[in-house]
Design a protein that fits this description.
This protein is mainly alpha-helical. The chain has a single domain (4-141), classed as Sufe protein. Chain: A (Alpha-Beta Complex), CATH 3.90.1010. The chain has helices at 4-16, 21-34, 76-89, 94-99, 103-107, 116-141, and strands spanning 56-63, 66-73. The protein has a two-stranded antiparallel sheet. A hairpin with a 2-residue loop joins strand 1 (56-63) and strand 2.
Length: 150
């Protein structure tokens, strides 16, 4: 399993090879199409990310001290963006997530091409990922290594 840093480097490298924004946009959409669909039982208010113009759901799990995410969205581009975040931030410890900045999104050119509403949505997604990481870190500090039932 690769670290968050290795995954962000891979994302940056993959997108660096693409010069045209429209092709980057198509790649993000393809990432969304490749994202495993989140079961409808988890597409509920409890897992919905507030602050997004589209419907976006993010379901965390915490098993053996490692955080994983499953996500979905009703908008194609947003589904790709959340898929990118799930790829980078899943399979990491809470500390790794907390200590990893989202600079890679700017580096690959995603943030500069988003509308204000989409930028706000992206900020809400990052905030939610970090919030879950802080919750799991708190549980970890109390000796809890598994929390898959929210």
């Amino acid at each position: 399993m690769h670290s968050i840093n290795e995954r962000t480097e891979k994302v940056v490298d993959d997108f660096a090879a693409i010069k045209d924004w429209e092709d980057k946009y198509k790649k993000v959409i393809k990432l969304g199409k490749d994202l495993d669909q989140l079961s409808e039982e988890f597409q509920i208010e409890k897992f919905r990310i507030k602050g997004c113009q589209s419907q976006v759901w993010l379901r965390p799990s915490y098993v053996d001290g490692v955080v994983s995410f499953k996500a979905d969205s009703d908008a194609v581009l947003v589904r790709g963006i959340i898929g990118l975040l799930v790829y980078v931030y899943s399979n990491a410890t809470p500390d790794e997530i907390i200590n990893t900045k989202s600079d890679f999104l700017k580096e690959i050119g995603i943030t500069e091409h988003l509308s204000m509403n989409r930028s706000n949505g992206l900020a809400s997604m990052m905030k939610q990922i970090h919030m879950y990481a802080f919750v799991f870190k708190s549980l970890h500090d109390k000796g809890v290594m598994n929390a898959d039932n929210f």
